[in-house]
Queue: 2 jobs
Job 1
Amino acid sequence: MSVLLFGKGLLLGLAIAAPVGPIGALCISRTLTRGFWAGVAGGLGTALADAAYAMLAAVGFAAFAAVLSVIATPLKKNHQASEPRKTPETTIAPFI
């Protein structure tokens, strides 16, 4: 089997397997109507917007985790203080 044929088949398989959504269709349309660089600019703009949304989501999750860690500390202390100490008799007794 030729390496060139394998490479072409691999590229064709990846092109078919990649889902084309509305933004991908827009990039293809701009590339065909306005040229290669317009398509590249549209693709880079899409990637930049996706990266900005991902960064905002990561910052939001980090802030939410920080708030939860502050709230969880008093809850853990109160829970440990009010929970009775478990002995083998208290853990087995409800099942007898």
Note: The mean pLDDT is 81.
Job 2
Amino acid sequence: MNQSAAFFGRLFQRLRQAAGTKYFIVLAIALVWMLVFDRYNLLSQKKVDKQISEYTKDIQYYKESIKELDYEKARLFSDDEALEQYVREKYYMKKAGEDVFVIVEE
């Protein structure tokens, strides 16, 4: 424990000495500029990463939707009964002489 305290004491002493040099000051200013004021600062990078992850989720959702719609399309074009059922449910179409009752759930 005493050894680590001495190590950190020496490290702090060196940092204090380096803080007064012009190189350290320029480095600190450049670092602050890049982290806060630059066009590609940390905050904007974090926002961009968040947008990328949201867009990736959207891409996955739309790919799944496309698969489901392709399946539905293939089923409707291949089966006349499925097409008739879809049209009756979706567009409330009916045969001649039939009555259609629409039940609305609240």
Note: The mean pLDDT is 85.
